[in-house]
Amino acid sequence: MSGSLQVTQKLQHQQHQHHHHQHHYESSCHLSTKSSVKQQSFSTYKTTSRRQKTTVETEKGHAVLKLSPLPTRAKRTYLAMDTDKEVIGYVIPVFRANHEVVRGLMEAREEEVTEEGINYVAMRNLFVREASEVVDVKVEKRTRTTFIRQFAGHLEFNKTLEEWTEFRKKMNPDNLTHLPEFIIKPRGQTVWEGKTVKLHCTVAGWPRPRMAWYKNNVLIDAKAHPDKYTVESTFNMHSLEIKNCDFIDTAQYHASALNVKGEVSSVATIVVKRFQEGEEAGPLDPKPHGFCAEHGVTFKTAIIDKFEVAFGNEGETMSLGCTVIVFPTVKKYQPEVVWSRNSVPLKPSKWVRTHWSGDRATLTLTHLNKEDEGLYTLRVNTKSGFDSYSAYVFVRDFEVEVEGVPVAPLDVRCHDANKDYVVVTWKQPAVEGSSSILGYYIDRCEVGTHHWAQCNDVPVKYARFPVTGLVEGRSYTFRVRALNQAGVSRPSRVSEAVVAMDPTDRARLRAGPSAPWTGMIKFTEEDPTGGIVPGEPSDVAVTEATKSYVVLAWKPPVQRGHEGVMYYIEKCISGTDTWQRVNTGMPVKSPRFALFDLEESKSYSFRVRCCNSAGVGEASVSTGEIMVGDKLDLPSVPGNPVAIRNTGTSVVVLWGASKEVKHLVGYYIEYSVVGTEEWMPCNNKPVKQTRFVCHGLTSGSNCVFRVKAVNAAGYSHSSSNSDAVVVQAAISVPGKATGVTMLEAVKDYMMLAWTQPASNGGADIRGYFVDYRTVKGDVVGKWHELNLKAVTATSYKAENLKENVFYQFQVHTMNMAGVSKASLATSALECKEWTLTVAGPPVGLHGLEVRDTSAVVLWEPPAFDGRTPVNGYYLDVKEASAGEQGWKAAHEKVNKMKYMKVTGLKSGTSYVFRVRAQNLAGVGKPSAVLGPILAQTRPGNNEIYVDVDDDGVISMIFECSEMKEGSEFVWSKNYQTMTDTSRMTIVTERGRSRAIFNSPSIEDLGIFSCVVTNTDGLSSSYTLTEEGLKRLLDISYEHKFPVIPFKSEMAMELLEKGRVRFWTQVEKCTAACQVEYAFNDVLITQGKKYTMNFNKSTGIIEMFMDSLEVIDEGTFTFNLVDGKAKGTTSMVLIGDEFRELQKKSEFERAEWVRKQGPHFVEYLGFTVTTECNVLLKCTIGNVRPETEITWSKDNIEIAEDDDDAKKIERKDGELTFNIGKISKADTGIYQVVLRDDRGKDKSIFHLTDAGYQAVMNELFRVIANSSTELKIISTEHGIMLYSEVTYYNEEQRVGWMHKDTKMSASERVTSGVTGEQLWLKINEPTEKDKGKYSMDIFDGKDGVKRTFDLTGKAWGEAFEEFQRLKAAAIAERNRARVVGGLPDVVAIQQGKSLNLTGNVWGEPAPEVSWTKNDKTLVSGERYTLKYEHGKFASITIASVTTTDSGKYALLVKNKYGTEAGKFTVSVYNPEEE
Questions:
Q1: Of 206, 643, 897, 1428, which sees the most CB atoms within 10 A?
Q2: Which helix (H) or strand (E) holds 423?
Q3: What is the bridge-based pairing of β-strands 178-184 and 116-117?
Q4: Cα(1467)–Cα(1446) distance, rounded to whole angstroms?
Q5: Section 281-293 average pLDDT
Q6: Given phi > 0 = left and psi -120 to 50 = alpha, else beta, which region is 1212?
Q7: E strand or H helix at 1358
Q8: Would you state the pLDDT for residue 681?
Q9: What is the DSSP string of 1200-1231?
């Protein structure tokens, strides 16, 4: 238990005490940063008649209090501690004391460094399990001087503690946020005219509130009127100074304080008096200078420059404005300007800003969202009435970043906020995208940070999700994203911030801050109370069911003890008798619980058990078989829509409401232009009405419409399409007929005629309808139709009229668009008839229940009924100051009762009333005037209220504080004194009268009123309706048979070290509430195995278990008893669910043990770098320098001198093994072992089979994604397409397609890989080779595709380059050239013969010539030149001489080119050598 505790303990009397002395016991208080549970120490000191004090010293020598031993009658209790060894609560039995007050014991609080009070340790030592440890007690005497010094030290310590507490408050502002509170409220004042008055107030709150001052609900702008007002704010003190007060400053002034937790206000009245001599002026005397200028003025308002239907996009800023004219103009008078959206008034926020300049009202919407879509209304209120104007604002979605994804959800709200959870709801978007929405992700963000965390791993289908795991005292905002097959939408607008805290704490904060903590705990005397096993819960039912979860709810047991109860929930599969506890880990504290992981389409039964420290109670009655599935069905299809022309850009769509729908959110309307399949939303925020005006359409387009309904379960199927309608202005109704006159009158009929209207509305007039009404004096009747079928002529015979009755007539014109407004009514026309005697005037008029806006008038029937009985009455009313023309009928239909309640009166105005009786002859003369009656609620006039006591007795109570001698309470029903006492018993005590229903039933319906006689009309009434009676009967039943309400059902959660927590939470309980904890219907108590805790301030009931054993399979129950109220909750943990939970608990324990030594934070895995190197890596934690790290492959350790050791690297707790370019040789089983004296851990990666394939698939992915776009190059043989990759593995598949058809290898088309180049060669390309080419590279899943469009310019340039290269290659192959046969140098002896033959080539055969020293040789006697077969050219020189030496060349030439085969001939003379 947190917070201060009241503890009582009985102290034993000392044998040597004097009976006439008062003994005082004090508790010293000290904080020690090193105290712990092991330091078992406690001490006491006492005061005897000699004022001697006995103390005990701790190890540090501090004097502390010794508490008396635990009484044998008290129940043994234990401390409750969390995983961080922080005391979160304890249950302490009471003890007795024969002293007045025991002071100084306080609860220690533990922050980052454990700090515990000595007294706290002493108390804890009393109740821990090691109570058998020996405690050494030392006794010493303290003098008064020593005591005073210690007391001064205590004061210094308390000062330090307060400074420390204030510092912690500043460091944790989220835990202190609370509603503003007026510490000192502004007080009303009365001042003389011309003086200065100042209003003061002091406001507390966190965050610091913002202050605003209002005069008669109109904001005071001090900056705009500095000469009149001065506003000051210093820290938490605020003031408003009004200078040079005038009579018009008399008003109510509101001081409003606002922060994130809410707004509070306080009112003070300023009365400004003017000094004058003589008698006070009367109401009809001339008004003095300074009277209220607007008094008696009737204001008229006109709204001009109106904003039209507006369209905006999300994220934009939009302003709406109108100019307001108020006539007449009164100085300093300002009307009240109110903006609303969909009839809900708007308040200034970060999304909405309003401004009133005195003549123009402006509304600015910052950062538009779909939540801002709706009908906006400007309402201008004056004392004389109001005027308003409305127009629709449409907000379009953001453009989606990925085509096909849904748009963002909207209207995210938080409900049922608690300490660690909140229910988030939202509305589905209008556009689902290219496919249906699969679910939603919910994100949360702690206020003050920018980190968004996803709350659910699996998308939820319902638009409702409970978010758990919140931190108590912190504020959060939420947003939602939608998911379909194309991707995830943008997030919605964030919700309003919500604080994770207990609702009771929230209510306490709203009520204002509590008294400052004094560091003292008061000890009072109470009797010890034993634990009571709670009874069984009642009314266990399934309140919400989906495919994902089922929510149970129940009523707490009546018998539950004083410590509260928690609950265990049990489930049973249909067809079995085995009950399995659901929340085995921890009971839940609230009377509701959500069960997940149930099998769909299976039937389950559920029941609940209560438990507390006394044990687990009996199981509740089973819910019966419940089928797991969606209980909230999708809405049925809406009715067929009907589209009606409206304006040039809008269409009115009407449709039938969905017949089978629960919790309807609204409807979405879509339209599509005929001839297209694209549907566009008309509204981005669902509307609930079945009529909607679709704006923003293209004029002249032909559109069809459809509608779909939406609730939390999802969307309905779309309705059928409407008939196509052309968007253009609709045909309007015709104008009014004119000149209605009477042509002829007879005793029972009249002949009427009129002139057709000037405008027919764009369509032919189809006929006319004639209405009539009777006129009886100043009272006019209700209009009635004379002809049900339209007449086409402009005249009509009104038959069956009554003679001597006055009638008025009006005419409606009709065309295909509808019926026009009525023409001007004729004057009263009399149908002559004989006269019958009418009734006399009613008598005995009197008024009751006079209020600001209403009054009840009663009367008696007239003394003379006339020739026929009275069959009804008419009540007239007028303001007392108005003339005779001011009489108005208070109702249209005849009133058959002798009373009537008149509403719509103006507060502070006097009225007079009169009544007229009616019989068959007509309406008689009016009664005497009643009044004047001032429409004002008299101070002290209370209203009748209904009360239901604890026994369920229903009664009506009327209280009167102004009883006089002889005053009595007179009760009546329907304003007739009650005489039947069998239905009701009247009990009157002084100024309070109680009418008790003996047996409430439908016979008691009616108006009950009570009048106090001998007073000035003190009275009130209460109308008991059938609905109200049913509600009262339900409340009566609840009071007779109370139950303990639960916030949540028993829940279970796993904690660190495998500990299990069962918990639940009750809505409310008293200090007498008791909890019994039970397991398998056997009560369990706190001990080594179980630790219980019941925090009555929060209603949370907890039970902890260190581990789950085989014997713990069964049902855990919390039984609560709080006076007459009971509550039970249970959790069943049996079968597979228990074994699975046990495994998880053991796993958590093993994980905790594993992490005490060196361990793997991330186990051995793999990654592939962009260079296509394969890395095996893991992350390690809690390692020391002496920790051994061993790598092995196939159980063979990799030594430091191995080649593979060079591949191992360690950096910042990350180990990597660089395999490099992987191959089959690298397959195997890799293992890393961590070992030191604290333990060991290992991680294994199987680079075989599936593991090897996974690595290869990742490698293929990297390779495929590294491929470049296809490029093209031409060659002499054809065209080649290619792409380059970082690395290529021979196992990777590459496919080519042409025009989406797979290509096969042929002589003309080939593909392959050269190094890191993937290519496709097309030899001798033709026109058929044009088209789109695709290369598909396998990436481990689907493949990466690269495409190239070989058409158009790309084809032309490539084909032209191919032809050029091909021609160049042909020329190179066929040009003339010397291919061989000729030497470079010929050395020959003089006189010898030289014969050389050169091989030539060319196509066509080349021409051949020989040259010597660049001169052409001619065949003759000296040179013999031959050219044979076009391939061999020879030269012969017979008997060479030295003159034949020189440079020779064989020249060959054809059309493709020329070439020369050069050689040198050197002739030598042997004799010269």
A1: 643
A2: strand 421-427
A3: unpaired
A4: 9
A5: 43
A6: left
A7: helix 1352-1374
A8: 93
A9: TTSGGGGGEEEETTEEEEEEES--GGG-EEEE
> Token pair for residue 494?
């964030």
Strand partners, 704: 672
The separation between CA 1454 and the C-alpha centre of its own chain, rounded to angstroms, equals 90
Per-residue pLDDT reduced to its tens digit, 178-208: 889 999 999 999 998 888 999 999 999 888 8
Rounded to whole angstroms, how far apart are CA atoms 540 and 568?
12
User: Which residues lie across from 256 on neighbouring strands?
Assistant: 212, 265
From 565-574, 594-603, 954-963, the region with the lowest mean pLDDT: 594-603
The vertex-76 CA angle with 139 and 1054, nearest 5°, equals: 120
Interacting residues of 160 by C-beta distance below 8 A, sequence separation 6+: none
Nearest to 489 by CA among 434, 526, 452, 544: 434
* One-letter amino acid for residue 1349 of the chain: D
What is the secondary structure of 584-612 as a DSSP string? -S--BSSSEEEEESPPTT-EEEEEEEEEE
Helix (H) or strand (E) holding 416: none
- Residue 172's pLDDT band (cuts 50, 70, 90): low
Residue 9 has a pLDDT of 34
* HSE value, Cβ hemisphere, 13 Å, CA-based, for 60: 10
Find out whether 961 and 992 touch, Cβ atoms under 8 Å.
Answer: no
Q: Provide the 10 A C-beta neighbour count for residue 1091.
A: 21
Residues 1109-1129 as b/e (b if ≥16 CB within 10 A, e otherwise) read eeebbbbbbbbbbbbebbbbb
1352-1380 as b/e, with b when 16 or more CB fall inside 10 Å? eeebeebbebbeeebeeeeeeebbbbbee
C-alpha closest to that of 384 among 294, 479, 271, 476: 294
Answer yes or no: are the C-beta atoms of 839 and 862 closer than 8 Å.
yes
- Per-residue confidence (pLDDT) for residue 374, from 0 to 100: 93
What pLDDT does 232 receive? Answer: 92
The pLDDT, as a whole number, for residue 46 is: 33
Kindly calculate the radius of gyration of the chain based on its CA atoms and give it in whole angstroms: 50
At residue 729, the pLDDT reads 77
Q: Which three-class secondary structure state does DSSP give residue 1150? A: helix
Q: Which residues are 48's β-sheet partners?
A: none
Full-model pTM: 0.39
- The pLDDT, as a whole number, for residue 529 is 45
Q: What is the DSSP string of 311-361?
A: EEETT--EEEEEEEEEES--TT---EEEEEETTEE----SSEEEEE-SSEE
Q: Which of 945, 937, 909 is nearest to 1018 (CA)?
A: 937
Q: Which is more confidently placed, 26 or 191?
A: 191
Whole-number Å distance between alpha carbons of 988 and 551? 48
Top mean-pLDDT range of 167-171, 350-354, 1466-1470: 350-354
Q: Do β-strands 1432-1437 and 1394-1401 pair in parallel, antiparallel, or remain unpaired?
A: antiparallel
Residue 658 CA to residue 640 CA, distance in Å, equals 10
Question: What is the C-alpha to C-alpha distance for residues 117 and 123, in angstroms, rounded to an integer?
Answer: 10
Longest dimension (CA), the chain: 185
- Omega before 861 cis (within 30°)? no
Give me the DSSP letters along 512-534.
---PPP-S---------------
399, 431, 430, 393: which is closest to 312 by C-alpha? 393
Is 1388 exposed, middle or buried (CB count within 10 Å of its CB: 0-12, 13-18, 19+)?
Answer: middle
Report the percentage of the chain scoring pLDDT > 70: 84
Of the candidates 718, 714, 708, 798, the one whose C-alpha atom is nearest the C-alpha of residue 753 is 798
> Residues 902, 906, 908, 911: what is their CA dihedral angle, to the nearest 10 degrees?
-50
**pLDDT bracket for residue 863 (50, 70, 90):** low
